[in-house]
Recover the amino acids of this structure.
């Protein structure tokens, strides 16, 4: 298991969590609900870890298209889950919607996706180096 490679995602998760908790009052004062940021961060971390384990399994596959498929499926799953979470939040948070928190979550989605693709590409290089 290449847990060392996932360390950057774990560091991002811990950093965002600490910042959201430490500056929660300031974020709330700027109309950025820090609980929404914490929820988005946790959701993105969980999905990223799931898709990275998918990528690790696909790298070991004999099918050369398996890796590309796992990256594409991972991005689609992440996008659909985050989209559903945003729709659920907008539906349930009647008058207390924090649009800026949703934008922050969308930015976190981009950061997690970039890190995930970077790690996935590093995973894909390993088997090719042995050939």
């Amino acid at each position: 298991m290449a847990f060392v490679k996932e360390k950057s995602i774990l560091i991002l998760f811990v950093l965002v969590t600490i910042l959201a908790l430490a500056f929660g009052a300031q974020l709330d004062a700027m109309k950025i609900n820090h609980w929404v940021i914490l929820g988005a961060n946790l959701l993105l971390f969980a999905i990223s870890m799931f898709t990275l384990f998918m990528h690790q399994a696909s790298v070991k596959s004999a099918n050369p298209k398996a890796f590309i498929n796992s990256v594409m499926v991972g991005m689609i799953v992440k996008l659909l889950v985050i989209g559903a979470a945003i729709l659920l939040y907008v539906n349930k948070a009647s008058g207390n919607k924090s649009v800026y928190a949703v934008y922050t979550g969308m930015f976190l989605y981009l950061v997690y996706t970039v890190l995930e693709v970077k790690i996935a590409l590093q995973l894909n290089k390993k088997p090719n180096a042995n050939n």
In short: The helical segments are 7-22, 24-29, 34-59, 65-92, 99-130. Residues 127-131 have pLDDT under 50 and may be disordered.
